[in-house]
C-alpha cells in the first residue's frame, strides 16, 4: 500500500529514510521521524482497534499521550512483547511489529461487534456488575471471555530479553515539558547556573512549536527550538531527557521519570544498553510546563474513524506531513481551532465547512475563513457523524444560543473527516498526584492546578495561559523564579514573539445536543477507551450516583490506560448538567500516578532475579555448595537445609543426619544466628529489663538462655546470652530476628532509658559459628585444642571458654540445641572455613556428619525446644509454652512483658498451650497448621482447639513427633484429640510432654 | 517517598534509610505493675489518628541508628520539623491547627 495521505512537502520527517514496519500482520512504509500513528494515517489505515464494550471500529483521534484508541501490543518476539503502547508516542523503526490489542476474533469481523449491535441496549453502565455477578462461581469463566473480547493487551510469556535500570538524581530545577513554556523556563534557569533536568515525553523536544506555522521574531518556530536546545545541550549542568515521561509526582518533590532509551531503535535494545530507565529525582523545585490537551466535542457516533481532535489534525499535517483525509468539516466552540481548517486547506485539501457553535462571532479568524472562501456555519453544531468504518458525512443542525438544544432541522454535509475542538484542558495530572485539588476556572473553561504544599510552580497552558507569546514569557519568568528559589538568583530571559491574532470569547460547550434526547440519540461517546457515553453518565446520575467519583466508578469513565485524558472533563460537564449543578459544584476526579503506563521492567530496574534482595552467605558457604547441600532462605541468609548424598531422598538424608549426630557427632553451620555485642556498666541491668529471666548474678564465663517478650507479654525472640566480662555480654538471636531485636533494644535504650550506660552493636558477620553435637563432640574438639580444658567438671554445660581451636583464637560455648553434648565454636569469620575443614580432617574417624536446618529442627523438636516464630506466633506467652522457669517475676524492675502477661486474658484458663503430640499411627506425620478438634463428627462449625506448629518424622524415635498448641493442653496429658485433614483423613493423636527424648537431660550431662 | 531530616546526622536523606516507629511522646508507665488492665491496654494499643499535625518516631535504620521525632501533617505529608529524643516539638496542633 502506498502512503496515500502523505504530503509531498513539509513536515519534520526524513523522506530519504523510508522505514518498513508491520501492523496487524500487514507491512507498511513510513519515514524516519514518523510515529506509528502518523505512519498509519499516512497509509490511510482507518480502523486501528475495536472498542471495549460495544466492539465498534475505532481510529486514531489524537497525536499525543491522550490517544485513547491507537493503543497497541508491540514486539516481534515473545520476549519483547510490550502492551499498552500509544502509537502516537512510538517512533517507527525497521522491523517494528505492532498488533491491535482489541478485536476478537479479528479487526474486520468482530464477534462482539455483531453481538452488541443486536443487544446494545442491554449493555447499560454497571452491566458487568449487574449481569455477570450471578452465580458468583461462574465469574472466573465470564472474566476469561470478557477480557479476551475487550482486549487489554497481554504480558510476555517468557523472560524479558532486555535490561532496565534506575538512576537516582538530585536537581535544583526539574522542568516537565519542553514546549515553548518549558524551553523558555529551561533557558532562564540554566543561564542562572542551576542544575536543570528538562524532561519531555515526545521523541523530539519543542512541543507545539514543532507543529505550528507561527513564526518567532520572523523565523520559523522550529529554528528557535533548535537554537534553544543547542544552547541547553552546551551546559554541563543541564540534562535533556526526550522520550522521558514524568509519570509520578510524589511526596517531598520526588518524581519518577520513565525514559525510553532504545524503544525507537529496535525491538530489542542494542547489547549492553538498558532499554528503559527510571529516573528517581529529588528536585528542589519543580516547574510544571505540561501544556494542555484539546477536548473533542461529544456528538452522535463521534467514534467513527475520521472523527479527530482538531489540533491533532494540524499536528499530523504540519509535523508529520500527513493529511488524514480529503474533505474536512471542522466543528468548534473557539477561534483557535480555525487554524486546523487553514492548515487543511493549505495542504491542498477541501474544507467543507467550519461549524461554529457561537451565534455572534466575528473577528480576525472569521475574516480569514471568509477570505479563504471557507463556508462558515455559525450557531450550528455537528450533531451526528455518518459512516461505519470511516466518516462519510456530518449531520449539522442549528443550536440555541446556549448550546442546550437543537432548534433547526439537520442537513448532511458530505465529508470524510470531522475535526472538533471544545477548548483545552490543562494537563494538570502531575499536580493532582501530590494531593492538590484542581480548581475550576470559568475563563479557561477547565480545571487548573490548585493549591499545593510542594515546591512547585506551574507555567503556560497547564496554568491556563494559552497564547504563545504569553507562554514564552511566563515560562521565562517562572524558570527564573524556580532557579532563584533553589538558590540561583536569576532573571527571566528575553523571549521571541509572534504576531498574535485576538480571539473572540470561546463558548463552554461539551456535548452537542441531538434532535433526539441523549438516551435515544446515536451513541455520543465521552470516554472512547471504556466506551462510556453521555447517556450512560446521565443514567448513572438518575440511578442516584451523585458524587463524581461514584459516577466514574459506576460507568468506568476514565478507567482505561489513558485515564480519560480526553473525556473526563466532558463527562463531568455532562454529569453536572444532568444534575442541574455547575461543574465546580460537581467537582472533578483526581488523577493518580502513573500518567501513562510504565513497564514492569522499568519499575523493577536491576532489582530482579539475583539482585532482587541481598543474599547473605556464611564463611563456609562454598564448602556447603561443594558438598551438594540443598539451601533454604532464612531472612536474607542462604542456609544449608540438608546435605543429600547421591541417590538419597530428603527423608533418607535427614534420617542419616539425625542418627549420625546422636550416635557419634554432627556439625551445623550456625554462623547466621544473630549476635549482638552489649557493653557498658548498665549492660547487666539492661538485660534484666529486656529478658524475662534473671541476669543479675550471671558470672563471667557463663551462658544463659533467655526469652524476649513485647509489652503485651507475648514471646517474640529467644537465644543464649553469655557473660564475657562484668560489663560485657554477647547476645544471640534467631537468624531472621537479628535486625529487629537490635532495633528493639535500641528503641528502649534511646527512648525509655537514655540514662543507662549501655552500647550495642551487631557482630553477626564478625564470627563464623560451628556447632558440633553428639557423644563424640568432646573427643573431636580435644584433638584441635590444647589450651581449653574440656573436662566435664571444669567446662560445664552453659559455660564458655576463650582459647585456641585449630590454631585460631576461639570462643567455645558449651550450649546445646540438640540435647547432646555440644560445643559452639566461634572464630573470626575469615578463619571459619579453615577451622571447619580441620574439624572434618579429624572428624572423619567419628563419621562427622554435616547437617542442615531441617535436621536441626528435628533434633530440637525431639527435645521440645521451641523456635520463636514457628511454635510462637505473637499470641503465646511464656506460660503458654510451659516455660515459667524462664520468667523471674520478682526482679526489681518491671521487665518488658511482665505486665502484659498478667492481663485478664493472659491468666484465664483454657488458653492455647504448647504440648507434644503423638499420632496413634506412628508413621503419619501431621501437616503443620492442622487444626485439632475434640469430636471430628461434630456438626459444622466444629470447635477448634489449636494447631500443629512443628511436625517431623524422628528417625531416632522411629516415629513421627509433633508440637502444637491445644486449648488447656497442659492439663490434658494423655488425652486424645483429632486432626481432620484437607484430604478427608482424620488423624488421632495423643497429647504428651513436649520432651520426646531423654527427659532427664542425661545425654548432655557427660 | 519522604525526604527526612535526621537531627543527628544533620542531613536530609531518603525515606528508604528510615523506619517509622509510631506515635511519639508515649511514655512507658512508671509502675506497670500498678496499672489497671485498662490503663495498660491504653498504653499498649490505643493511638491517636489525627487529621493534621502528628508527632511520630522514626529511626535512621540504615544510617546512625538513632531514634528521633518528626512532626508531620497527615493530610499533606509535609514534615514540619525533626527533633531529637527528649526535645519538645515547635509545631503542635495547638499552634498550627489549620494545617
Kindly describe this structure:
- With 1006 residues, chain A is an alpha+beta fold.
- Chain A has 6 domains: 1-159, Ubiquitin-like (UB roll) (Roll); 164-292 and 426-485, FAD/NAD(P)-binding domain (3-Layer(bba) Sandwich), CATH 3.50.50; 296-422, FAD/NAD(P)-binding domain (3-Layer(bba) Sandwich); 519-598, Arc Repressor Mutant, subunit A (Orthogonal Bundle), CATH 1.10.10; 669-851, Gyrase A, domain 2, CATH 3.30.1360.120; 906-992, Elongation Factor Tu (Ef-tu), domain 3 (Beta Barrel).
- Helices cover 21% and strands 27% of the residues of chain A.
- Chain A has 23 helices and 49 strands.
- In chain A, the strands form 13 sheets. In chain A, strands 8, 9, 12, 13, 14, 15 and 28 form a 7-stranded mixed beta sheet that branches. A 6-stranded mixed beta sheet of chain A has the order 40-41-42-39-33-43.
- Chain B has one helix at residues 37-45; strands at 3-6, 11-14, 19-23, 53-59, 67-73, 79-84.
- The longest helix of chain B has 9 residues, at 37-45.
- The mean pLDDT of chain B is 94.
- Chain A binds chain B through residues 250-254, 282, 435, 453, 711-712, 743, 746-747, 750-752, 754, 894, 898-900, 902-904, and chain B through 1-3, 14, 19, 21, 27-28, 31-33, 35, 37, 40-41, 43-44, 57, 59, 61, 65-67, 73, 75-79, 85-86.
- Chain B: One of its GO terms (biological process) is tetrahydrofolate metabolic process.
- Chain B: This is Sarcosine oxidase subunit delta.
Provide a concise account of the structure shown:
The complex is a heterodimer of chains A (1006) and B (99). Chain A is an alpha+beta fold. Chain A has 23 helices and 49 strands.
